[in-house]
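Customer ticket, subject: "Can you confirm the structure for YgjP-like metallopeptidase domain-containing protein?"

Message body: Hello, I'm evaluating your service for our small team and ran a test protein. I'd like someone to confirm that this is what the system normally returns, since I don't have a reference to compare against.
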Amino acid sequence: MHTVEWFGPQQGAGRDFPGGQRVTSGRARRSVLSHRGESPRSAASAPRTVPSPQSRGSGASAVEVRRSTRRRRTVSAYREGDRTVVLIPARMSEAEEQRWVSVMLDKLAAQESKRMLGDAELAARAELLSGQYLGGRARPATVRWVTNQNTRWGSCTPAEGSIRLSHRLQGMPEYVVDYVLLHELAHLLVPGHGRRFWQLLEAYPRTERARGYLEGVVAAGRLPHLTGPGDDQP
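Agent reply: Thanks for trying us out. I re-ran your input and got the following:
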């Protein structure tokens, strides 16, 4: 995942792009967006929830601001249920807090808007794979990318018909993404990982190749925390 960062006046050397922006390979567990804040102010305070500005088009109805003494310049934000969590340095002033909350809400909304097309394409791909290999029997209600899924390549909730794929799969070969997607589609029909479940995947010709690819990624240490789709090894 790429993380977009902004730096203060004394930072931003090296691989920075115009405007103080730099693209790096981020591994923050739950951070969706990350920026460098400015010089902070007083001590840490308990998390507090504030109303989300009415102008934001997100589904989150409130913003929870969490101050941390460990943070010096970094500001991060992510969705958590029906709210948005913004993490800021403990000594940041209230004026800076308000400004960065506004900035992060805008950035999250923009990112989610862009991701909608990707989710739509993913849903279309799921429908195609279900028709090709599962007789069209697996019909998910929703299929989407998620950024807070760091211990699984994919997951599903059969009762809701929802499928979620880790954003870390983005950029991997298409047959690998198809395998993980098909794996989760099969779970809509068979919840466990018994013989019947694996028989459903036998029709996909690149199952073993995809499993080997994912195992290689983990072995190489590029994604050390990920195992496989659902609760099993890929």
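A couple of notes from the result: The radius of gyration is 20 Å. The chain has two domains: 2-113, 134-219. Feel free to reply with more questions.
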